[in-house]
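Dig into my protein:

:::
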Amino acid sequence: MIRGIHVSTAGGIDKAPQKLKEFGLSAGQIFTANQRRWNNKEIPASVADAFREVSERLAIVSHASYLINFASANPDVVKKSRVALVEELNRCRVLGIRFLVMHPGAHQKAGLDKGIEMISSALKELLPSVEEGPVLLLENTAGAGTTIGCRIEELAAIRDSSGVPDLIGYCIDTAHAHGAGYRINTSSEALSFVDTLERTLGLENIGAFHLNDSKVECDSRRDRHEHFGQGMIGLEGLNLLFQSPVFDEVPGIAETPGTDGDRAQDILKLG
């Protein structure tokens, strides 16, 4: 994988790529706006130009707002989600970011099948509306509550029924997979997980990994990130995934706790 971390945009979004370079990293993930707020300002052209210049040789992905949920039982949330996704796509477009990671959402009162239908329908309409926008990467979840995507098949169902599969890929989070019951502690378990990904998603459709150890037990349906080697996944399985040649061109992003420096120390433990 291409070694990277989730990096803070404190001091300006255009400063984030330089931080990655200072850590000796070739990949990174950012938030292009406040991920817990609906309304965000447009990125000034001067800032976007500066970002593009300094990130030219880096593999940068963006993470969409946690608020977006096309399967919500609240029509106002669905309406705001539609606006928010288009804004996210446009910010990535002006910054030259190739991939946008998004949590699928939670079906709440609708039920799983209806939730998948609501999400895929929204993506079918909205993704083509932003020309030259990023590929949307659906992220697997740990499975708390009614969240969609804890089973890999649910991600595939959204993409397959969207009508725009070329505009959709996947981001695989190791802590979420562990929480959802996929065992990846050992090399053999990690290889088996890769086989599952290949059969269900197609490895060529995986655009990024979120690499995290986990504070909680396998199949807990909980999402609690931990530093590499200090959690219940351990280094062996994570290292197998990181070193797997089938993911050589895929950004491997550490989202572990603490500072940018703490995450940089974590990602340097692999490989």
